[in-house]
Request: fold
Amino acid sequence: MGRFARQLSAQEIKQGYALLHLMDHLDREMDLLNQQRIHVGPSTQEGQRLTQIKQSHLRKIQTCISELNTSGFNDWLLQQQPA
Reply:
C-alpha cells in the first residue's frame, strides 16, 4: 500500500467488481464441494473428482486475485474507503 491508485475507467471498475462477484461465487461453491467431499469421502472416486473441481476453483480465484492486483483495482478500491 502507500501507492496512489490510478484512475480507472468505468469498464475497469465494472470488471473489478465482476471479478469480486466471481470470487464470491467460487468461494460459496467450494464450500458446497467441501461438504459433498466430506459426505462421500475424499478417497472415493467422487471425492477425488470433487477435489479436482475444488483445485480448479482455487486456481480461478488465484487468477482473479492476480488480475485485481495488476489492474490497480485493489488500490483503487482501498482509496474508496472512508478515512
User: Anything to note?
Assistant: The chain has a mean pLDDT of 91. The first helix runs from residue 10 to 40.
